[in-house]
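Please, structure for the following, as tokens.
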Amino acid sequence: MVAADVVLDATETGKLLALAGAEHTVGAESAAETGEPHAPDEPNPDDQQAITWCFAVEDRAGEDHTIAKPHDYETWRDRRWPFWPGSQLSWTDLDPIRLRPRTIRLHEPGLRRDRWTYRRIGARSLLADRSTEQDVTLVNWPQNDCWTRPLVDSTDPTSAQPWYESAAARDAKALSRAFLYWMQTEAPEPTAAPGTRGCSSAPT
């Protein structure tokens, strides 16, 4: 037996809470339960944070690193959500504060911030030897937030299935693969033909 004043659940999906029989909630609670004025009238356990399958890319200008076209590419490219301004595979998303459409491309010459610098994890300009290294950015953007299904199964929160083998994880991986292909082949760029074929990555 273990006793402690505070126990932190470090599992990816909070399974310890369910296994311990601890009081917890999955998804969105109702206004009646919390008193929160903007909460929904009815609780919705499937209203959960989107899952995002992140991947890193280098931008190797002048090279072609285009991946094979995913078999479900058109499905992801043509999908529409009622709360989203057009295709998710687009540089247009929603400003998280004002909830208004905004367009930010991979590279925005002359602007302080673009997609590339937003989550850049390796800046070549900061290195003493710049001869071989490339900039690297982490693709963790609204474009690869996957909303098809919740990650946590509210009907079976103690399921033994690893989260990364779930249907939600498979969808998230497929969306990220489609987004990379879109970036490489169709994404509009301000000073060149569509697509940035130098985006080099290998999402699994």
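The beta strands are 51-52, 55-59, 92-94, 101-103, 120-122, 136-139, 145-146, 199-200. The first strand starts at residue 51 and ends at 52.
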